[in-house]
Amino acid sequence: MAYGTESIAAVDVIAGPGNLYVALAKRMVAGSVGIAAAFAGPSEIVVVADATTDVDSAAVDVMVQAEHGPDGLAWLITWSAEVADAIDARIGELAAEAPRSKEISATLSSNGWLALVDGPIEAVELANHIAPEHLQLMCAGADDLADSVRNAGAVFCGPLSPASFGDYVAGPSHVLPTHGSARFASALTVDDFTKQVHVITVDESGFDRFGPVVEALAVAEGFEAHADSIRVRRKQGPPS
Fewer CB within 10 Å: N-end or C-end of the chain? Predict the structure, then answer.
């Protein structure tokens, strides 16, 4: 797609999710083509839980993205040791019985994490640091906490909003940033297939005000031709 074939012209933008191989292939051709929605590689989930969270739901949701296979990321964050123990134990039970037990176990063994923090504010701070593809706020006050989320591909709030909704029916797209790229990127949208062309017209007052600034900066950088483009328009004669 990036280079074209005898029958297919080279494209300008490549978009879509994929596994690690797809993501690395995108990195290799980035620059030759536009890569929409940043790094969309192995799947990731961060679940934030408290004493109000249903243990079975939280355990299953930690496993949901893990069943995609290895190289993904699965976190459980809570400020209750009892909740941590209960959900962790249930994950072990459910993973052992799951049809994709091998894939789930591989992900959890390499990139499965349980974090015990001081409270909900610290939980969101940690989630922002992780910048996950999917963030589930399965705790009390989820909607209010969502206002503090800065880095996440998609945020799912409340007990009835599993990330699987995003996989299949919720939102305009489920091509989401992974591998920490949610720090600077967002979900795939129509904006990824549009671009801006800037049209600049400087009037006399604008030239009189900012022309000297342009000239001074050009001189400071040693670009005399840039400075001359201002000088000749300021009626100071042709460039020497």
Answer: C
